[in-house]
Write a structure and sequence with these properties.
The chain is an alpha+beta fold. The radius of gyration is 29 Å and the shape is globular. The chain has 3 domains: 44-72 and 112-236 and 404-455, BirA Bifunctional Protein, domain 2 (2-Layer Sandwich), CATH 3.30.930.10; 252-384, YbaK protein (Alpha-Beta Complex); 473-569, Rossmann fold. The model has no long low-confidence stretch (mean pLDDT 93). A hairpin with a 6-residue loop joins strand 11 (219-223) and strand 12 (230-232).
Length: 571
């Protein structure tokens, strides 16, 4: 490829709407262009990287026995009604009707589609295990698309679905995909962690997110350096905090005028914050009031609330009228005296407290000397871990303090069990001729997100620093003055030799100033730059620049190719 033929419209400045560095650099370097909010065109440089990521994915999927297919993007509503998920996705699902009024969705995911396909074709255990995958566009109507390819409404995803005859087989398929993902992201040159994760709307059993470590990441990750435990903050388990046993004092109601926050209450009553109980009020899609109670120094984990409350699909902060109806006032809440019918979820550590402070369900009133084991009616409570992990909390596996970091989710693996095969009545006959539901797993990689996450992790003040495996080109050959016939001819020979050696090379034959071309090379992030100058022609010395380190190396004409190959092996 010659730069004079390449469609790569670079920008002088970052676009005003771009927030993350990956979004800024992909726009400035001419990798993508915005069509609408959360919808982008991939330009040649960006598409070359996408195709290289896809090639790595295909190779690792095929190596584990995956077979590539292509399913429709437009999915009939009937299969989503069968699974019960037509309402779960809510407004994020892009829905449409054909001219006959029949409802369809633009696929946000393909569990229903693949299950309906397999139930019609696979009837015997002899056809299992089966792993089918595709790489195609997905659609989710994000309420606030942002960060470029990180949170968009149209995006490229690899999704593989496994079908097994039993749970043991499903777990083997899961491990195959886990190992494949480890290889994929390693080959892409990323620093990442597999972390335990919540399954969310997908449902099913256990799950791991593959998370690229980056300060700009939306995911918060808890990890332990002692035992290698890692989990998203939504999923991270927490051990019950056993409070020091105290003699239980009589429950007493006291006045706390204008104390509307835990900080105000603890200051007014002169108690440590860890001796207070905090209430957070939610409502679900059905309008049910859900009161969550954690220790005053802890935060409520909404995902854990959703997992604890049957039938709750989404949460929002409760309306004041709903709270008032349940306890007579908005605020000053505790489980003591709440009207029947309210869903009350109490963190397990709260139940271990002694002589604590909690709301009295009256304006400007609190209870002191609250001992939940004595004062809460446990028969009316859901008692479970509902708090958000924070740095310094004990690791649930070894007890050592955890640390927190941020990351970008680029892939996730799930065990689904028979959640979808049962709801869509997908069965096969086992060795004994007995009808059974398939045991399934699903495994997704955000291809565009992987490209964006790579840039978040590999950049400097000059631009992108691509790992060699997914760089749009591995080497760029730059004649200092392309108007000089000798320099251009020499550059073309080097370009041809590198291409003949199987190196993905571009020749920057533009008749621009050298500084402009060098700046574009750094902005786009080619791993190796070869500069052809008058010194090259006169002395046979070729300058090689390593983008990652900025190091410049001068080598003889006879040695340059071997040196380039050697350098690329380490990039």
């Amino acid at each position: 490829m010659r730069a004079t033929q390449l469609y790569a419209p670079t920008l002088r400045e970052f676009p005003a709407e771009a927030e993350l560095i990956s979004h800024k650099l992909m726009m400035k370097a001419g990798l993508i262009r915005k069509a609408a909010g959360g919808i982008y065109s991939y330009l040649p440089l960006g598409w070359r990287t996408i195709r290289k990521i896809e090639k790595i994915i295909r190779e690792e999927m095929d190596a584990k026995g995956g077979q590539e297919i292509m399913m429709p993007i437009t999915q009939p509503a009937e299969i989503w009604h069968e699974s019960g998920r037509w309402a779960v996705y809510g407004p994020e699902m892009m829905r449409l009707k054909d001219r006959h009024g029949r409802e369809f969705a633009l696929g946000p995911t393909h569990e229903e589609m693949i299950t309906s396909l397999i139930r019609s074709e696979v009837k015997s255990y002899k056809q299992l295990p089966l792993m089918l995958y595709q790489i195609q566009n997905k659609y989710r109507d994000e309420i606030r698309p942002r960060f470029g390819l990180m949170r968009s409404r149209e995006f490229i995803m690899k999704d593989l679905y496994s079908f097994d005859k039993d749970v043991d087989g499903m777990n083997i398929s899961y491990q195959k995909m886990y190992d494949a993902y480890d290889k994929i992201f390693t080959r892409c040159g990323l620093k990442f962690r597999p972390v335990e994760a919540d399954n969310g709307a997908i449902g099913g059993g256990h799950s791991h997110e593959f998370t690229v470590l980056a300060p700009s990441g939306e995911s918060s990750i808890a990890y332990c350096e002692s035992c290698n435990y890692a989990a998203s903050d939504e999923k991270a388990e927490l051990k019950i905090i056993q409070a020091e046993v105290e003699e239980m004092k009589p429950l007493e109601k006291v006045s706390t005028p204008d104390c509307h926050t835990i900080e105000m209450v603890k200051d007014y009553l002169q108690v440590p914050i860890e001796k207070t109980i905090k209430a957070v009020a939610f409502q679900d899609d059905d309008g049910r009031l859900i009161l969550a109670f954690v220790r005053g120094d802890h935060e409520v984990n909404e995902i854990k609330i959703l997992n604890a409350v049957d039938g709750a699909l989404h949460l929002h902060m409760a309306e004041e009228s709903a709270i008032t109806e349940a306890n007579g006032c908005a605020g000053f809440m505790s489980p003591i005296g709440i009207k029947d019918g309210t869903i009350i979820v109490v963190d397990s550590s709260v139940m271990e407290m002694y002589n604590a402070v909690a709301g009295a369900n009256e304006v400007d009133k609190h209870f002191i000397n609250v001992t939940p084991k004595r004062d809460f009616d446990s028969s009316k409570l859901i008692i479970t871990d509902i708090r958000m992990i924070k740095e310094g909390d004990p690791c649930p596996h070894c007890g050592q303090p955890v640390k927190m970091t941020r990351g970008i989710e680029v892939g996730q693996v799930f065990t689904l069990g028979n959640k979808y095969s049962k709801s869509l009545n997908a069965t096969f006959l086992d060795e004994n001729g007995k009808e059974k539901f398939f045991e399934m797993g699903c495994y997704g990689i955000g291809v565009g997100r992987t490209m964006a996450a790579t840039i978040e992790q590999n950049n400097d003040e000059h631009g992108i620093i691509w790992p060699r495996a997914i760089a749009p080109f591995e080497v760029v050959v730059v004649p200092v003055n392309a108007k000089n016939a000798d320099q251009l001819e020499y550059s073309e020979k080097i370009y041809d030799e590198l291409k003949a050696a199987g190196i993905d090379t571009i020749l920057d034959d533009r008749k621009e100033r050298a500084g402009v071309k060098f700046n574009d090379c750094d902005l786009i992030g080619y791993p190796i730059r070869i500069t052809i100058s008058p010194k090259t022609i006169n002395e046979g010395t070729i300058e090689i620049k390593i983008r990652k380190t900025g190091e410049m190396i001068n080598v003889n004409r006879e040695e340059y190719k071997d040196k380039v190959i050697e350098l690329l092996k380490n990039l």
